[in-house]
Amino acid sequence: MSVASQMLDTYPKDLGGVDREKLRACIEACYECAQACTACADACLSEDQVAELTKCIRTNLDCADQCETTGKVLSRHTGYDANLTRAVLQACVQACKACADECDAHASEHGHCHVCAEACRRCERACQDLIDSL
Amino acid sequence: MSVASQMLDTYPKDLGGVDREKLRACIEACYECAQACTACADACLSEDQVAELTKCIRTNLDCADQCETTGKVLSRHTGYDANLTRAVLQACVQACKACADECDAHASEHGHCHVCAEACRRCERACQDLIDSL
Amino acid sequence: MSVASQMLDTYPKDLGGVDREKLRACIEACYECAQACTACADACLSEDQVAELTKCIRTNLDCADQCETTGKVLSRHTGYDANLTRAVLQACVQACKACADECDAHASEHGHCHVCAEACRRCERACQDLIDSL
Amino acid sequence: MSVASQMLDTYPKDLGGVDREKLRACIEACYECAQACTACADACLSEDQVAELTKCIRTNLDCADQCETTGKVLSRHTGYDANLTRAVLQACVQACKACADECDAHASEHGHCHVCAEACRRCERACQDLIDSL
């Protein structure tokens, strides 16, 4: 069982009406995507064609930042605020979509963009699933 | 002239149609609010009535995280994506509003909540002003 | 294979003399520990005895922040700087040790502190192993 | 009076033996440097010679991350841990020094690297001053 799952199990109060499984999946997807985007930005920096990848690097950095924030907000349950959670998730959907689209455009040439695009799509779906269940 | 302002002045390409003054104000408000919320969460932790401030602490932490992310996204201009910028700003407006409301409820008792609520309101307005100008 | 591992495999240049397996383990431990500490701070906030857990919450927050930074620094390989990597890892060892010690003191009463202390110990060891191999 | 200064003034307990003025200066320098490094990484991305600036971008990103973490750790006073504070400050000194050196090498060609190098030097000195006073 993952640490994120164990942390949900040991939270001392009720998690509210949230879908625990969708929440766990979304937390894990956010942290995974944050790491992938950070690494993809750096891998793009080390490509010989870095000059053609500057928009990809920038989108990677934005997506890493928003995924980190979303992963942290979702890891907190005290004083839950549905409007705040929804707004943060929507920003994350947008960031993941933008980054997945950008990485997909280079996925056939750069393996890191392929791996990163998949992580972004998983995170986008996990955020959307969680929004739909709120 | 602030460092954020100098960094805007030395950006090597065109900033696009963005309102430079609103952008600068918003970047500075995000970093200021992120610091204030981090400090307010900690100040609440040190209050004797911490048990009554747990929702405030949680909202402070969420707001600090979203403001940091927004401040970073706004500090980047390469490959600008209006949809992503707008979604991140909207999440920040929501986080600042939630935190300002929460801190305002304790502002008469706790000086740090008063200072933090004002920083959140400034950041909320700066983000909304920037959204309106996009 | 984890996404962090796939990102290392698709990095386009040489990773230098680094021990790839220790690096992967350390990146994953940093992100896992960052999430656990964020969740543990929040779980402590929701305990009835929150007033006795304020130092634990503060140490959780510091450890989460330093683990995030360390996880990001280790996810970058372009223009590697051994002195910077070592200093960041040493700060992470210190943060993880402080947080593990603090959480261990409450581990028998609070399941989240038990899970978090273990994540901190794993991360402390992974950082120390990587330092020793540099 | 800055918001960081107001937050220190409204902290409800004793700040311990810390030099309040050095602490305030260091908190402000960390946030300022984090912003400058984030913006400098992006400005480098938009330079025609981006291929020659990849190490600079990477160091900017590391420095931004470590400065953010240091600024947050210093904004907390509850349950102060001198060893943790010192280790985080030392990592920040190292990150600022590396980034200032890297940016200085391009300061005559790129105005953003000049502004960023100065922000890094100020932050390096503020962190070292605070370490010396602990």
UniProtKB/TrEMBL annotation, chains A, B, C, D:
Gene3D superfamilies: 1.20.1270.360. The lineage of its organism: Bacteria, Bacillati, Actinomycetota, Actinomycetes, Streptosporangiales. Signal peptide: none annotated. It comes from Nocardiopsis metallicus. This is Four-helix bundle copper-binding protein.
